[in-house]
Amino acid sequence: MRARLIALLLGLMAGIGLALLAGPADAGTRIKDIATLKGVRDNQLFGYGLVTGLQGTGDTLRNAQFTEQSLQSLLDRLGINVRDARLRTRNIAAVMVTADLPPYTGQGSRIDVTVTSLGDATSLKGGTLLMTTLTGGDGLVYAAAQGPLAVSGFTVQGQAEQLTQGVPTAGRIPNGALIEREVPGSFRDLPELVFELKNPDFKTAIQIADAINAYALARFRHRIASPRDQRAVAIQRPREMAQTRLVAEIGDLTIEPDTPARVVVDQRTGTVVIGRNVQVSTVAVTHGNLTVRVSEAPEVSQPAPFSRGETTVVPRTELAAREEPGKLAILRGSDLQTLVRGLNSVGLKPSDIIAILQAVKTAGALQAELVVQ
């Protein structure tokens, strides 16, 4: 019994040891996530169509004349003459259909499409898109879309109130477009393999080239990558490996991309994004809010009895000013955590943080690029 217990403990320890050895690898970012292969890209398609089957939430034909003309042309092609009739339906809407055609998509494949309203329709929920041809930038038809819409937003309206959630005038059709024409060219026709960085940077390009060369030295005994500039890294395909397998294995290599020191400020929403490498030189900051309130309280002045005066309104304005005391704090951010801790110590709102960052940048203490949107 004792020997069996010892064997069980040894087995558990061995399993734990294997689990520790097979732990997660060093954190890193795959090359396929920070770079794309030059020449392998999507193509944008768009088209004009009609959505039918709406529950009285479609376009008003008198307000959206293009919808009425499209409906008349559609019925004419079906052999129904309505040119002299006054159409009053509210179950149809004119829409724009957009889609992205993935690279090297074969004929007969399906892609998702997005449908958005053009007229004064209030909702596309429950509608069905009639067959719509999708053209590319060259004017050729590459796909045809049709099918029921999936709309997440809704609107409910009463006599005195209206509730809207999401965007009811836009929807998607999963696998709603059928590819009718292939884009010329194939993966084998690429003249060269060039990885283009999504965020150009010299250091990141060097790291990508070093990682690929280390992989190539272990696999092919020679280097195959050379950085051209901060945006592109060229690859020389070895003869002993297929091009598809080479790109797949290179895409799984991991590096630590370098990020520039940048602070992005969105004044509309009060969003502040601070990069990891942002540093602030030693600077003293104080910030106080000045609040001025103006209120109007007019008074009515009435004349004395049996007098010939008139009742008048006498204006009365009240002014009040209050300035909150500001805290004086010293900011010195050698790293992101220290900088955030220093800003939080002052006790500021997002709008105040934006103003302070702009002032610190003007003073020359913000060692980063300040992007204001």
Automatic annotation (TrEMBL):
Presence of keyword Signal: yes
Transmembrane segments: none
Family annotation (Pfam families): FlgI
Domain of life: Bacteria
Membership in a protein family: Belongs to the FlgI family.
Function recorded in the entry: Assembles around the rod to form the L-ring and probably protects the motor/basal body from shearing forces during rotation.
Name used for this protein in its record: Flagellar P-ring protein
Organism: Methylobacterium oxalidis
Originating gene: flgI2
